[in-house]
Amino acid sequence: MANNPGRQGGGGAAGGGGAGGGNAPNEHVEFTVKAEEDLYLTGSETTIRRVTADTNYSCLMLKTQRFSSLFRHYAKYHGLRKDDLEYYFVHPLENEDTPESVQLQRGDIIMVRKRRKVEAPEQAADDSEFFKDMRELLDDEEHMDAVFLVHRMPPKAKDAGGGTGTVGSKTTTTTTTARTTNGKRKKDVMTSSSTSESIHPSIKAAEFPFSDDDDADIASSSSSSSSSDVDIVEIRAHKCILTARADYFKALFRKNAGEVTPGGSSSSFREALGCVVRVDPTFTPKIVRLMLEFLYTNRIECLEKSSAKVLGPTTDELLSLLHLSDMWQLRDLKRLVEHELIRNHMKINTVARMYCATDDLHAKRLSKSCLEFIMDNYREVTGSVAFQEEMKHHPNLCIPVLKAAADLIPEPATKKQRTSGGSDLGGGGGKMEMPGSSNAAGIASSPVPDSDI
Question: Any transmembrane segments, and where (predicted)?
């Protein structure tokens, strides 16, 4: 193959014959293999230089011959390991390549060098870095263009505080909790403006529209007092994040430009005009913040930390978050909350609340797990007062419990029927019939018990 004048001359003749006779199957090509660098044989004890850089080695190959034979011959001739070397012409050469497939011509040079280690690709961005960036985005209000108006506390909590107040309703009374002066309230609003939530002291109908009937009441209430007693927390977010993560918000903020109803009004939702979402009074600011944390980071950090210092959401708060995710069609959040309830909140005194909540929230996973827990702890659960009180309000959920309990009861053992030849009484293989028994169907009668007890 190499450094053989006879073969090279023969190759030239074959090449000439090939030129005259077309692409003959035994057409050869003569080329040079050149060392790009010093080539060494490396061992555990010492290293020996076998080939000096820029040393040429003449070769002759069939055009259809694979380069794997060249790699094997070159390494063997120079006392090197085949796997330590790599060759390239225009591109790196592989074992399956041939001089014809890489368009190698007479006099071309193939370079050989020590095989380079494959560099590991750069590590992709850590998930924690993404989580950190999205957390910073959630805390940055500079470009936030969507607002959630949330009641500071649910109606039941306000009732417990001594007063009741419903935003947007026609009967709004002040709470009896301690309140600060107007000047101090304004100061609190200013200091809280750097965070993602602030107290909205007065609601203007034109700025935060509710229903048509409520706008006039809120407007008159706002004009009568500069500091309203309605406790509303303003939580901001990025509309682009909301619409990218949830189809509900994508539809809510869509502006149907040019589409006008027959009455002359636009067909867009009111939220699309001011990017203001009025949250139902049953959901607290904490629930909305947990929802936003999931939309921004695809996780809820307090659920992942098991430290005793970090208090996670209570069972009622998780059920409220499950309700919100179901109402706003946040499927992934709903799945996460169900998993958390099943894993850490399934107890004797909470399973009834969780099971009854599934009736309206379409939580099939949670419902199935609750039934399994009830069956595993049947006596303790059914004997608890909490379970009995909850089931009074959801009597339809008793049916699945009864069916599951029925499945636990073993089937009664069926009595073995007698065959026609199964009795020795009566002789001749006849059947024994008791007084008063009917055997018209040809089925053996059961023996009469000795007593009626």
Answer: none
For CATH 3.10.20.90, list the domain ranges present in the chain.
Answer: 5-114
Q: 5-114: which CATH topology?
A: Ubiquitin-like (UB roll) (3.10.20)
How far is the C-alpha of 37 from the C-alpha of 34, rounded, in Å? Answer: 9
pTM over 0.70: no
Vertex 285 angle, CA 312 and 160, to 5°:
90
Using CA of residue 331, residue 337, residue 342, residue 347, what is the dihedral sign? negative
CA separation for the pair 357, 414 (Å, rounded): 41
Rg, Å, the chain Cα set: 42
pLDDT digits (tens, 9 = 90+) for 86-142: 999 999 999 999 999 999 999 999 999 999 887 777 766 667 888 888 888 988 888
* CA angle at 245 for the pair 249 and 299, rounded to the nearest 5°: 125
Tally of helices (H runs) and strands (E runs) in the chain: 18, 10
